[in-house]
Amino acid sequence: MNQSTARKTSATTDDHQEDRPHVLTLPLEDQQADREPHSYERWLLAKLMRMAGSPPVRFQLWNDEFVGPEVGQARFTLRLTDPKALYALVTNPNLAFGDLYSAGRLQVEGDLSDLMEALYRSLHNARQQWPRWLEALWRNHNPRPTGVSEARENIHHHYDLGNEFYQLWLDQAEMQYTCAYYETPELTLEQAQLAKLEHVCRKLRLKPGMTVVEAGCGWGGLARYMARNYGVKVHSYNISKEQLTYAREEARRQQLDHLIDYVEDDYRNISGQYDAFVSIGMLEHVGKDNYQALSELIRRSLKPNGIALLHSIGRNRPMLMNAWIEKRIFPGAYPPSISEFMGICEHGGFSVMDVENLRLHYAQTLTHWMERFRNNMDKVTGMYDEHFVRAWEMYLAGSIAAFRTGSLQLFQVVFTHGENNQLPQSRKDIYRSPAAPEAY
Amino acid sequence: MNQSTARKTSATTDDHQEDRPHVLTLPLEDQQADREPHSYERWLLAKLMRMAGSPPVRFQLWNDEFVGPEVGQARFTLRLTDPKALYALVTNPNLAFGDLYSAGRLQVEGDLSDLMEALYRSLHNARQQWPRWLEALWRNHNPRPTGVSEARENIHHHYDLGNEFYQLWLDQAEMQYTCAYYETPELTLEQAQLAKLEHVCRKLRLKPGMTVVEAGCGWGGLARYMARNYGVKVHSYNISKEQLTYAREEARRQQLDHLIDYVEDDYRNISGQYDAFVSIGMLEHVGKDNYQALSELIRRSLKPNGIALLHSIGRNRPMLMNAWIEKRIFPGAYPPSISEFMGICEHGGFSVMDVENLRLHYAQTLTHWMERFRNNMDKVTGMYDEHFVRAWEMYLAGSIAAFRTGSLQLFQVVFTHGENNQLPQSRKDIYRSPAAPEAY
């Protein structure tokens, strides 16, 4: 969606700016919500549901009539407010589902994450029987380019929404907008995010005085954690202005600024050689075209005995990002499949030492975010319009479903130069004590 | 090499059988070891060494003359016993080095593993500058086919050399002919092999009453360990007769035969569904052409919430097996690169949960094997001819070097069906206590 229009403080000025993703809306007078549904409209919806594997869903049309299974078999009711919403949905369900929900023209009765999970499962099974033409119709389009200038636009679109907004629902420990590590299931979001940071530091085998370079640092939490707890010097690159402002202020406040250099620059401009190369949640934005260059960059930035860690959303198979997410939420996003991920390591002559998949940890992280987002709904609606709020809910709910159903994975990959023989004897010391603080 | 000819007990009969790998030998009268070396022969050797990156090696020719760097710079002396050995080496060094060593026509002064390591490092660096024609000349050939009938031949060639032979230098705990797990560096071979078995069981999260299928079971040690320590039922497939004979006897002796079914059959004929699918050191013999079929086999053999583990030698990049090893030692062998390995998982819609690289553990395992092999040299030479003994030494030394220099990797990969949500919360419990017994 177009965040510029959504943000209440800076509305109207660029309402018609077409170069950024925006939400499909139609003037209400065209929506013909006062007429009776046609029988072929009911047929189209029923057909759509069959192609989607008959999920436990029924529709309520604009005249309150129900289409689909009995209420006993339908765990969710989707209300379509007008005929055009129905046409948008049946002709381009992949994109329109999120857009109509955001616009309030598709309303959901039942839990949104559970609905999305049911739809994911149902679709996943149904797709295996689809004819080729249907698969082609459904196909997600290629992500937007991610060159140096486009990357700035892509990142600005999402990460510069305002630090106050993210503070409402991210953890209060280190503003981590990536998968947490629930080493035990009852951890709070704060504990699990700190555990993630600790887990990453342990995998990197940090020692005081070492140097670290970080590609994409968010609000700078990992760099501060490393400097504070491991006494290392960190250079952290980011192209989101709002995040960097926060990161720098926070480092000063914690008197860590002598150990951390937050650099406002593209990761491609990283220079120097370091004991560790780390990137948490940036690879999803890098784009396949840049994998080889990233690999070469890590090759020249890592000291001979250095350790690199990439943490990224990934896939079990190569697959384009969901169209709605790529268009409205994360422009340019492409999560690599595990073999594509390994291809990055192979290109640079690296030796992959450790891969850990934290898929269900991301589902739990997102569930915690969703909870806080909803608890702060009044504040969010004070900042943004309802359209934005619903889009964000859909994004969080859809992501929970994607991680729960295995449509998305979360890979932490540790690797070294192929010639490096200074390797840890085992992974045992990563587990020497709990990674999470006892309380937060 | 041709084991049939090598084995003293069954010599002569099939000396000229050409369908099995055999060692290049020339009748001595052709070898012209009594003439002076020509100047262009010295030039050829010097050229070969330059192309190989000038390793710290000098040659001693059949007339005792030295070629190469001063004794101070040369850590190793390679003695060539005759002119034809020189020609074989310069025209096909990749294959001839091992063959000439086995034949006693290339003799090494200095530690063989250290020499091989120095050659690997030197070659690795030099190759990056090689012109294309030289790279093409050096190229390893494609491995032999690994269909059901060829696989029998391939496996028989190596694994049916005689249990008494392997007992001389493998661990006395469970006859493990795969990488051990040195969770601490001072472990004995027996402790480290038992630790490997325990490590694998923990990764598979075995519980009493579960069922396991094993593809390629060697002498059956993992199956017995699982039955004994975890109370699971194991079906273990193998096509090496000699190994199975030992495995079955040992299971009976340990009164574990009610829990273990050792099946003499190709892994492709595995049937049924199991809580765990495990394969230690078989993937190297499967061949790229069969990766998809293997993936589909695991898909249908694994229960919905089951866990699979593949343990295999691998590569940092796709690369053919060393020609000499493929021809003389492991016919049909091809260690997958990490992305090829992941491709196996992707094909079956699996979710990769854990990858661990134990490269240096294999170097240590091989060092222990080599030590025992040398300590039992008198017994080995009682069983096989000198040619065989030298070939085996070269194979062990070359493998040590390959793992030390990162030319080979050892990957343990854990994966599940993509839809499985019954995943362990973390890997912490794998490290709950030492995997190795306190003593052996």
CATH superfamily of the largest domain in chain A: Vaccinia Virus protein VP39
Total beta-strand segments of chain A: 11
Number of domains of chain A: 2
Percent strand of chain A equals 15-25%
Shape of chain A: elongated
Radius of gyration of chain A: 23 Å
Strand order of the largest sheet of chain A: 7-6-5-8-9-11-10
Regions with little confidence, pLDDT below 50 for 5+ residues of chain A: 1-6, 9-26
Q: In whole angstroms, how far apart are the ends of chain A?
A: 35 Å
> Under the CATH scheme, which architecture of the largest domain in chain A would be assigned?
3-Layer(aba) Sandwich
Assembly category: homodimer
The largest sheet of chain A is: 7 strands, mixed
Highest CATH level, the class of the largest domain in chain A? Alpha Beta
Q: What does this protein structure show overall?
A:
2 copies of one chain form a homodimer. With 440 residues, chain A is of the alpha/beta class. The first copy, chain A, has 2 domains: 108 residues, 2-Layer Sandwich (Nonspecific Lipid-transfer Protein, Chain A); 284 residues, Rossmann fold, CATH 3.40.50.150. Helices cover 43% and strands 15% of the residues of chain A. In chain A, strands 7-6-5-8-9-11-10 form a 7-stranded mixed sheet, with helices on both faces. Chain A has a 4-stranded mixed sheet with strand order 2-1-3-4. In chain A, β6, α11 and β7 form a beta-alpha-beta unit. Chain A is elongated. β10 of chain A pairs antiparallel with β10 of chain B, so a sheet runs across the interface.
